[in-house]
Automatic annotation (TrEMBL):
This is Transporter. Na(+) binds at G80, V83, N87, N345, L474, S478. One of its GO terms (cellular component) is synaptic vesicle. It comes from Champsocephalus esox (pike icefish). It is found in: Membrane. It holds the Pfam family SNF. The chain crosses the membrane at residues 74-92, 104-125, 146-174, 232-251, 263-286, 306-327, 339-360, 462-488, 500-519, 531-552, 572-598, 618-643. Residues 705-730 have a biased composition (Polar residues).
Length: 730
């Protein structure tokens, strides 16, 4: 017991004691643990490289930190953050591009090897230390505190352009309340006495024209900003208002929003799946999707893209996972949570893939039938002009009811007989396989291919409203996690009202987001998507893995997990954290750098005169901007390391936080009250059992030697004086 308590003074002196422990602690100067021998058994002036993740007992309720109302809210928040737009428009594209069903094999293997272990790691450190990304990594190893700052920077970059996509979805959502849908047909313009189709639309398609001209009103290059697109400015404003309202009260407000934003997309996906399976050609699309091309599994590119998708699908490195888990009770079974959320994420990707390819299979059949009709008209024209002989047409073929099989037979005969002039005829093969192989992703899938397919649905406005409302909710769930990853570390470090911080963040983000709602804004969205997150986040997660597994120590971390969860996690995690995951992340970093070096840096510009996209290289200023995104996101890592290595900034370990001090005072006060009761009853306090739970001895870096307190000339195990408090770092 501390020497200056009421009880110890009463035992050694008859003088009255008027000061309380709370008074003494409030007047006491912050203890400099770096120069103290207490709890660590170290000589004065020496420092410990890392702290214990298991501090002395500190009830969750005493640190004043908000908590989830129930476990379901927390799970829905993690699911809403991890399941986003990428599950709907990125995973199906990668699946189609990289071997169909064969792609699921490397994806699932890498989900087991790096996805679940690293997701579990982030959940565990957030739940144990109960701080945001900056506080967590300052605590684990202060010299790598830049990890949290880099996470916050990446969250900021991603949030800026991600909410623009939600704004686009909001615009399409409101445009869907009309029949026919505005992108169903090309607009007509009057040219003198004639009404003609707009040339740009005629050269592309109705949905493509609506996206590039009516929605984005896009310029032909990134150099031409074109001014603000006021329709998109208003949509972006609405998107930021929605996000601000969802996060303004912290998890108290975002937790309620998650009940709808996380569950509604599944309702829509199931409705689309049922409706899609009833469409003609849906089975063709799904069969094409899951037909495995096993030879693709031998290509390194497939494994690299699978690793990247696993990495981003779970939201690793963003800080949102850590922030959400920091509001959990310390005894929560985060091991189960990691497996559950990872499986839900994987199943959602499969479900979205089924929906996408059922609808795209239907679209492919529609386009294939249109191709047959158009080319049949060409053949009839050639027959009427005598270019082709009627003897070339099989007698059973009826042009008024021409099937794809009949056209394929007729096409084959003409190609064989008229081989010398066949290329001049301009006939297409009209193969369904060719339509299904047209891979689309991202905005091309959501705002062009999918919208075009929905125009052929019965009651198309209803399905369009449902689809874009689903995209809004998917994006909102991810944005809530992203904003929490930004606000939680700031709230942990500074005394500021969360409402003021959230409003300030949203206003600043809206103003910065005006970059993306210029007429050339789509090109900047592509730039930020390609450069702001990929490499920086991979480096961040690699350093997270190294700081826990190698600097703090995997053995100690496993022991901490056993103390926290009540059971020891499988040894599988030990080997993944220590060897396998770091090795895979190193390979992924190297592959990403090589890919960036060999791939031309550029974007697909829309050429109005041609009605098509054309690849353009970035001009020097845009290329400098793209690479500066990587540099700015990763710059906190070396800066914080050097500043703390040379003791130019404090790591925050020289004083206790207010919340932890409150917890200490309450524990000591409880101890005093019980000892005083025993003293009044005539018992020696030392003979009575201690009301405090017996603490686990703190182990040194090697994990074997027990560290003791030698400050007062006696050897006592660490209790509530253990410096390994997470709050002591903040």
């Amino acid at each position: 017991m501390p020497k200056n308590t009421k009880v110890t003074q009463r035992e050694h002196s008859n003088e009255p004691v008027t000061e309380s422990v709370a008074d003494l602690l409030s007047l006491e100067h912050p203890m400099d643990y770096k120069n103290s021998q207490m709890s660590m058994g170290l000589s004065p002036g020496s420092t410990a490289p890392v702290k214990a993740l298991i501090p002395s007992p500190d009830p969750d309720a005493e640190d004043g930190r908000p908590a989830w109302n129930n476990k379901l809210e927390y799970i829905l928040a993690q699911v809403g953050f991890s399941v986003g737009l990428g599950n709907v428009w990125r995973f199906p594209y990668l699946c189609q591009k990289n071997g169909g069903g064969a792609y699921l094999v490397p994806y699932f293997i890498l989900l087991i090897l790096i996805g679940i272990p690293l997701f579990f790691l982030e959940l565990a450190v957030g739940q144990r230390i109960r701080r945001g990304s900056i506080g967590v990594w300052n605590y684990v190893y202060p010299q790598l505190g830049g990890i949290g700052v880099s996470s916050l920077m990446v969250c900021g970059f991603v949030g800026l352009y991600y909410n623009v996509i939600i704004g686009w979805s909001i615009f399409y959502f409101f445009q869907s309340f009309q029949y026919p849908l505005p992108w169903a047909e090309c607009p007509i313009q009057i040219n003198g006495s004639q009404a003609i189709v707009v040339p740009e639309c005629d050269k592309s398609s109705a949905t493509t024209y609506f996206w590039y001209r009516q929605t984005l009103n896009i310029t032909s290059s990134i150099d031409d900003t074109g001014g603000l697109n006021w329709k998109m400015v208003l949509s972006l404003l609405v998107a930021w208002i929605l996000v601000c309202l969802a996060v303004i009260k912290g998890i108290q407000s975002s937790g309620k929003v998650m009940y709808f934003s996380s569950l509604f997309p599944y309702l829509v996906l199931f409705c689309f799946l049922v409706r899609g399976l009833m469409l003609k050609g849906a089975v063709d699309g799904i069969a094409h999707m899951f037909t495995p091309k096993l030879e693709k599994m031998l290509e390194p590119q497939v494994w690299r893209e699978a690793a990247t998708q696993v990495f981003f699908a779970l939201g690793l490195g963003f800080g949102g996972v850590i922030a959400f888990s920091s509001y959990n009770k310390r005894e929560n079974n985060c091991h189960f949570d990691a497996a559950l959320v990872s499986v839900i994420n994987f199943v959602t990707s499969i479900l979205a893939t089924l929906v996408v390819f059922a609808v795209l299979g239907f679209k492919a059949n529609i386009m294939n039938e249109k191709c047959v009709v158009d080319n049949a008209e060409k053949i009839i024209g050639f027959l009427n002009t005598g270019v082709l002989s009627k003897e070339l047409i099989p007698p059973h073929i009826n042009f008024s009811h021409l099937s794809t099989e009949d056209y394929a037979e007729m096409y084959g005969v003409i190609k064989t007989v008229k081989e010398d002039i066949f290329d001049q005829l301009g006939l297409d093969s009209c193969l369904l396989e060719d339509e299904l192989n047209k891979a689309v992703q991202g905005t091309g899938l959501a705002f062009i291919a999918f919208t075009e397919a929905m125009t052929h649905f019965p009651a198309s406005p209803f399905w369009s409203v449902m689809f874009f409302f689903m995209l809004i909710n998917l994006g909102l769930g991810s944005m809530i996690g992203t904003m929490t990853g930004i606000t939680t570390p700031i709230l942990d470090a500074f005394k500021i009202r969360k409402e003021i911080l959230c409003v300030a963040c949203c206003v600043i983000a809206f103003l910065l987001g005006l970059l993306f709602v210029q007429r050339s804004g789509n090109y900047f969205v592509t730039m930020f998507d390609d450069y702001s997150a990929g490499l920086p986040l991979t480096v961040v997660v690699f350093l997270e893995n190294i700081s826990v597994a190698w600097i703090y120590g995997t053995d100690r971390f496993m022991q901490d997990l056993e103390d926290m969860l009540g059971f020891r996690p499988y040894s599988f995690y030990y080997y993944m954290w220590k060897y396998v995951s770091p090795a895979i992340l190193v390979l992924l970093i190297i592959a990403t750098v090589i890919e960036m070096a060999i791939s031309p840096a550029g974007y697909n510009a829309w050429v109005e005169a041609e009605g098509a996209e054309q690849f353009h290289s970035y001009p020097p200023w845009a290329l400098a901007m793209a690479y500066s995104l990587i540099v700015v996101a990763m710059l906190p890592l070396p800066i914080v390391f050097l500043l703390r290595h040379y003791n130019l900034i404090s790591d925050g370990s020289n004083k206790l936080s207010v919340s932890y001090r409150k917890g200490m005072m309450k524990e000591i006060s409880n101890l005093e009250e019980q000892d005083e009761q025993r003293f009044i009853l005539g018992k020696n306090p030392s003979e009575a059992p201690s009301p405090m739970p017996a603490p686990r001895p703190y182990l040194g870096p090697g994990g074997t030697q027990e560290m003791t307190n030698t400050n007062y000339g006696t050897s006592t195990k660490t209790g509530y004086q253990n410096i390994g408090s997470p709050e002591s770092e903040l």
